[in-house]
Amino acid sequence: MADTTVTSTFRPSRFNVVTRTDDGDAVVLYNSMRGSVFRVQDPVGRRVHDLLHNRRSVLSRPGSDAADESRLFDTLVTKGFLVAEDHDELAEADALR
């Protein structure tokens, strides 16, 4: 798992599935590599969708002045929805076989 105090750039995991709930007021995230499931209510759900929708995005951890955003970012890293930019997820998946 990535340590957000050392790694400076992250990207969405290639194993993420992001969908909206039927009532449209939240997003549900699933990471098939980790088995993580996370439901996030709007308006934070919209922010999570924006962070994760483009797998090629390169993201930096928010500064300490944005405590809520930093906490959200760290949660997404801990649950495997964001990974270190240089992390080889395919090699990790192959090692699990």
Short description:
With 97 residues, this protein is α+β, with helices and mostly antiparallel strands. It has helices at 44-52, 67-78, 89-96, and strands at residues 9-12, 16-20, 26-31, 36-41, 59-60, 82-84.
Quote the beta fraction: 25-35%
List SSEs in N-to-C order.
Answer: EEEEHEHEH
Low-confidence stretches: none
Which value, in Å, is the CA radius of gyration?
A: 13 Å
On the 0 to 100 scale, the average pLDDT is 88
| Structural category | alpha+beta
Helix proportion of residues, in percent?
25-40%
Give the N-to-C terminal Cα separation.
Answer: 18 Å
Number of strands: 6
Summed up, the helix count is 3
Largest sheet: 3 strands, antiparallel
Which strand order does the major sheet show?
5-1-6
Tell me, briefly, the overall form: globular
How would you describe what is shown here?
The chain has 97 residues and is of the alpha+beta class. It contains 3 helices and 6 strands. The strands form 2 sheets. The protein has a 3-stranded antiparallel beta sheet. The longest helix is centred in the last third of the chain and has 12 residues. The radius of gyration is 13 Å and the shape is globular. The two termini are 18 Å apart. The model has no long low-confidence stretch (mean pLDDT 88).
Which short descriptors sum up this protein?
3 helices; three-stranded antiparallel sheet; single chain; 6 strands; globular; 97 residues; alpha+beta; 27% strand
Strand-helix topology:
Elements: E1 9-12, E2 16-20, E3 26-31, E4 36-41, H1 44-52, E5 59-60, H2 67-78, E6 82-84, H3 89-96
Antiparallel strand pairs: 1-5, 1-6, 2-3, 3-4
